[in-house]
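This part of the workshop introduces the protein records we will be handling. A record pairs a protein's sequence with a compact description of its fold. As an example, a complete record with its sequence and its structure tokens follows.

_____
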Amino acid sequence: MQLNFVSDNQAGVHESVLAALEEANSGSSPGYGEDKLTAAAEKSVSAVFETDCDVFFVTTGTAANALAMSALCPPWGAIYCHEGAHIQNDENTAVELLTGGARMVPIAGEAGKPDPQLMRAHMTTATIHGVHNARPGAISLSNVSESGTVFNPEDIAAYRALADEFRLTLHMDGARFANAVVASGASPADLTWRSGIDCLSFGLTKNGGIAAEAVVMFDHAMAEQFAFRRKRAGHLWSKQRFLAAQWLALLKNDLWLSNARHANAMAHRLAAGFKAHPCIELPWPVDANELFPVIPDHICVGFREAGLEFYDWPAQSYMTRFVTHFATDPEDIERALEIIASTT
């Protein structure tokens, strides 16, 4: 029996989403976001954040991030992010393409969080060089980070201070935003606009959806031209009600948070098994639903022979990645714990 911990992208779709899509399939409806479901879903997203925000549904996280950055940073600007960030390493040159050439500036930092002082040094150098360097334009933070760690409002404050000092915009890649909300204990509002986030790439695809991504703009001025950017990039769906239906299903009765809560709990249970193993290290905190154990090669072989499926992670020698999700079966976790404990 194979036990899959490769990615939350490999999970299926929550039954409530499938039911909502079937219901949305009844009859006809206006296209291109002019339907009632889209209006209701936009209103529901605004309610989550306790503010009037502009919501633009898209179908992939890469589209959300790249389109967001096109609105937040000019072509001659620089985008500062952690060296392991998804927009830096896993989105080809989508950001550069849609911004018209903005430069990515990767910043080192512990456990997926870019060092604010190192970031400030890069910005200072660029500012001194003036027109000869890429002008500091935006900061992007991943919450959950690519190391499985979570930014709380106090963490975000340091980057907001930099954004204010150098007149930058502040973006959050929230592909696993639900997991960050649950892990931090903060409200969605406190993790975003109340902490100074200008724009959020809000993802629910990993949390029970099929193609459930959105760009959420908290600054109306920045959102003014965004509808044109989305259309130009080919991400305005004609049958957008099928995107909206997913959001309505996942936001109803806080299902998105319940799903994330389960995923996080499964990860913490799995982490206990790794921590108890004398030959395995967990160098980063397990804040949400991702774990990055460092496992000796012979034990990795044993794990895989016993049926564990996981990803080799390049950040450190012998580092791996295990990911849980909304549909992770607790019995699979218990079986995985047995394999971990018995493999030496």
Observations:
- The chain has a mean pLDDT of 97.
- The first helix runs from residue 15 to 24.
- The radius of gyration is 20 Å.
- The chain has two domains: 3-10+255-342, 15-253.
